[in-house]
Amino acid sequence: MRSVNITLLLTASLSGLAACSVDEAVKTPAIGNALTEAGTLSAQERCQAIKNSVRDAGFAGSVDVTCDSDYAYVASATYPDHDMMNGITGTNEQIPVPAAGYAAPVRLNPVSSDELTTIDAAVGVAVNGVPIYDYSSQGELDVQHYDPKHDTVKLGQLDNCGGHAGRGDDYHYHAAPTCMIEVMANGEDNPIIGWAYDGYPIYGDLNPEGSSIPEGGLDVCNGQTDPVYGYRYHTSATPPYIIQCLVGSVDEKRLPRVAPLAGDNPVRADLRPPREGVENLRHTVAEDGSRTMSYSYEGEEYYVTYRPKDGQRDCYEFEQKTITHGGIVERGTFCRDEPGKRPPPPRPENDARQVHYAEPVKVTPDGHTFRLEAWADNWFAAYLGDQLLVEDSVPITTERSFNAEVVNFTAEYPLHLNMIIKDFRENDTGLEYIGSPRQQMGDGGFILQITDLDTNEVIAQSDSGWKCQVIHRAPLDEACAAEQNPQAGVAPCSNQIDPEPAGWMTTGFDDRQWPFAIEHSASEVGPKEGYDLIDWAPQAKLIWGSDLKKDNTLLCRVTITAAEQ
After folding, report:
1. What are the two backbone dihedrals, phi and then psi, of residue 448, each rounded to the nearest 5 degrees?
2. Is the pLDDT of residue 284 over 90?
3. What are the tens digits of pLDDT across the range 214-229?
4. Sorting pLDDT into bands at 50, 70 and 90, what band is 269?
5. The domain defined by 355-560 carries CATH number 1.20.1260
6. Which are the contacts of 169, defined by CB distance < 8 A and separation ≥ 6?
């Protein structure tokens, strides 16, 4: 979750931003007093309004709404009864799978916030129970600047209905849910089409009474004041298409996520198809309940298909031939567990792809108690000075060693933190899956945060303030990945390998010539198992060197001098 102070923000109508440069802001009326009142409805009346919006749209049979004193819970399987996935070119090779029991919490007592909130997940829910995201493929947004490089519409990632399947094979909308509106029983009446998590309704491109919204009439979150609800959001034909930030306060701990598919093998994880897109993508549902998504790339046909598994609720038998995995046919059974939560998937014996809690470490007998949380693609070791705090519990020799590590330690400020971070490679070519159809240059990524448990404040995190020196870079020529018999150090598989500098973990080591770490977005890194099991602070960033694929081993240093960061 990311917040932006309203008082510092010149709100912009991104409805007209498509015609502007990426860094150009269009000044429009600020949110200002838009939320001076929550509207004229009581919590009970707002609960009834949410129930009515689902019932009047004709979705009462598949969507259930219950209320307590604070929230309305819009529960569904997130699987709409309209056409899906057709029209996509920029596929991620994911396919929509029902997520029974997903409950979206909508506030019944909206409260204005001093900050606008963006979320790397759903910001609301449609009246058919499908989650609603912002326009971006990268997660949290800079609401002051529209970024076409992460626009799911322009990237061809959305279907003809404004949605697609995410990394958890979960269907959600990033733009106006046009197909849903077409099948709504009251779709021609400019009705409420969804609800944001802060408690305000979402309408289509027009005002409730059918009038057009003038250019510049929507604020930076794509909304405006409302006499009944206090505020309302709208869809729009131009960016940001739908909600891009929340104006009311939200409780981050209550925000749900669709539970990931858990299976007995990793074939549905880390799917990375070509960025240039595919052709002829088709999504069909057969009479036996199986769903199939087929598509072509460079003249070859690929597909993902699944069907409900007999006798096992919320479990599905998959078969796939994906671009990511080199066109081999793979099979597996996958289930959704604990709806709305993010449990680790079942793991084969001796596989630690999860959150691993290491034994506490006492660097000094007295002092502050800290908690270090870290996730790496693929391996890391953390030191305080030269004393080891924690080493990744899965060896770097394990091909898919993705898991998070947590360790508590006692120490005194200043904290001199040293890190060794490595990406998996089979040898000094820098390649992985050597000799298989999947032979490739692997990419890395790392994130860390340290919490002072005496104050419960995050006092350090990975970001561009760290100094990180790359000591293993390979291959220097990407053509190496296509070699039938790649040889380390032999062109095109040349490499650059340096020894660890003597004394680099000491406080007096001169790192002024070391470069700063480079921050990378989640869409670039593609975090895998274990990452979502840590509640990362907004300031904690995924870091690496300048090249996610070529940089294989990094040494990083940072000093935390006090609790205030």
Report:
1. -150, 150
2. yes
3. 999 999 999 999 999 9
4. confident
5. no
6. 94, 95, 96, 97, 261, 268
Separation CA 166–CA 95 (nearest Å)? 8
* Rg of the chain, C-alpha, whole Å: 25
Pairing state of beta strands 355-357 and 404-411? parallel
pLDDT in tens, 409-432: 999 999 999 999 999 888 999 998
Lowest mean pLDDT among 70-84, 340-354, 548-562: 340-354
Task: Give the mean model confidence (pLDDT) for residues 191-205.
Answer: 97
Say if residues 420 and 371 touch (Cβ distance below 8 Å): no
For residues 424 and 444, what is the distance between their CA atoms, to the nearest angstrom? 8
Residue with tokens 């099979």: 331
The full length of the chain comes to: 565
Q: How many CB atoms lie within 10 A of CB 87?
A: 16
CA separation for the pair 198, 124 (Å, rounded): 8
How buried is residue 455: exposed, middle or buried, by Cβ count under 10 Å (0-12/13-18/19+)?
exposed
With helix as H, strand as E and coil as C, how does 376-403 read? EECEEEEEECCEEEEECCCCCCCCCCCC
Tokens of 62: 């598949």
CA distances from 78 to 61, 259, 299, 320 (A): 13, 11, 33, 23
The pLDDT-based confidence of 345 (bands split at 50, 70, 90) is very low
Element housing 201 (H / E): strand 201-203
β partners of residue 389 = none
The residues with which 518 forms a beta bridge, in sequence order, are 544
CA angle 424, 426, 430 (to 5 degrees): 70
Residue for token pair 């204005």? 112
Question: Where do the domains of the chain lie?
Answer: 2-85+95-238, 261-336, 355-560
Is the bond leading into 378 cis (omega within 30 degrees of zero)?
yes
The percent of residues in the chain predicted with pLDDT above 70, rounded, is: 88
Query: What pLDDT score was predicted for residue 21?
Result: 31
Vertex 28: Cα angle to 23 and 29 (nearest 5): 140
Burial profile 519-550: b = 16 or more Cβ within 10 angstroms, e = fewer: bbbbeebbbbbbbbbbebeeebbbbbbebbbb
Predicted pLDDT of residue 364 = 86
Residues 104/74, Cβ–Cβ less than 8 Å: yes
Pick the closest to residue 474 from 491, 495, 492, 458 (CA basis): 495
- DSSP type of residue 254: G
b/e burial code for range 316-326 (CB count within 10 A of at least 16 → b): bbbbbbbbbbe
pTM, two decimals, is: 0.60
For residues 361 and 354, is the Cβ–Cβ distance under 8 A? no
**What residues are paired with 27 via a beta bridge?**
12
8 Å CB contact between 86 and 283: yes
DSSP per residue, 133-189: --SBSSSS--TTS--GGGBTTTTT-S-TTSEEE-TTS-EEESS--HHHHHH-TTGGG
